[in-house]
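Hi L., both proteins are below.
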Amino acid sequence: MPRLIQAMNSTDEQHICELQKLYLSDDAKGHGLSKQLMTIALDYAAQRYDQCYLETMAKLKPACALYEKFGFTPLKQPLNGSEHSAMDRWYLKVLK
């Protein structure tokens, strides 16, 4: 099973995880699967971490809207320790 939640390269005091690679094929879109996957991933993360971080691209407007609907706050820059230089949107959600 692919891993959606991964611990970030950060200090233990921060307790931040990163949501990675939430993709659906075109034929799977429009059935509520993104919302279900987000709910499962965030429930899992909330049991283990204080915050959840993710990176995406501005051109992925439906993804950005989904993240904001789930309470992710846009950031002005990536968190320290980020390794995804191709992304241009960064989000953080407080889980606890």
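That was the first. Here is the second:
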Amino acid sequence: MNNLEISEIKDIFSGSGWGTDYLDLMKSSRFDVWEGVEDTSIYRCFKIDYDKVAFEYSFNLRRCTLEFTLNTSEYVINKPGVNDVFIDVEVNEDITNVFRYPRTYFTGSAVLNLSTGEVEQIDIDEVSLR
């Protein structure tokens, strides 16, 4: 999540039914996990080669912090709307940090090499926030 552009995070917000107003004001983002993986599931598993299996999985990260930064001047102008989208705000002289604390859900697929025990390919197909 830390490698995503603001526009990609905006797509995740939108797909999760969260408001995307004011995300265009954000200069950077940071994602932290402070409580681990829950509800891991493997939905489907099938052999794709003599020593490889593919599987579909899901899990969620129970407690996360999604932090954005924006110019304090932009925050002051848009304060009521920004405060409707974000839970916490830290206002500093030049930069303001705003926060959401989502439970983050992932679904994806992977390929496991049975001979080596290594995951050779892993894809995250969907991310949603609650």
